[in-house]
Task: inverse folding
């Protein structure tokens, strides 16, 4: 059973990880994939941190606050990168940026 105090943050982290994975795979299909390298890297890193964060919260880990801060930072940075590409019409980057911002907000609440 997931500790209730972590439920919303875990859900946001898992949704963000999925959005980041989908964004990375979509970026790989773009014609200018070389220009997407930073976005892909940030997507993969963010997804990894989000999954780790969800795992630690599900364990009611004493490291959750620390990882929530790191996760929020990774999510904000990923959102900023994705928003650059979203402005050029890449919908997958817009979806990812929104998931990242929501996750970052939830992580900041948990860390506070």
Result:
């Amino acid at each position: 059973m997931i500790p209730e105090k972590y439920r919303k943050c875990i859900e946001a982290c898992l949704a963000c990880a999925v959005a980041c994975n989908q964004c990375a795979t979509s970026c790989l299909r773009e014609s200018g994939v070389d220009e997407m390298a930073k976005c892909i890297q940030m997507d993969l890193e963010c997804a990894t941190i989000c999954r780790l964060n969800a795992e630690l919260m599900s364990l009611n880990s004493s490291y959750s606050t620390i990882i929530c801060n790191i996760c929020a930072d990774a999510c904000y940075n990923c959102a900023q990168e994705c928003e650059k590409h979203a402005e050029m019409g890449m919908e997958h980057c817009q979806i990812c940026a929104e998931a990242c911002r929501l996750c970052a907000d939830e992580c900041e609440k948990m860390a506070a």
About this structure: The two ends are 23 Å apart (CA to CA). The mean pLDDT is 94. The CA atoms of residues 8 and 42 lie 23 Å apart.
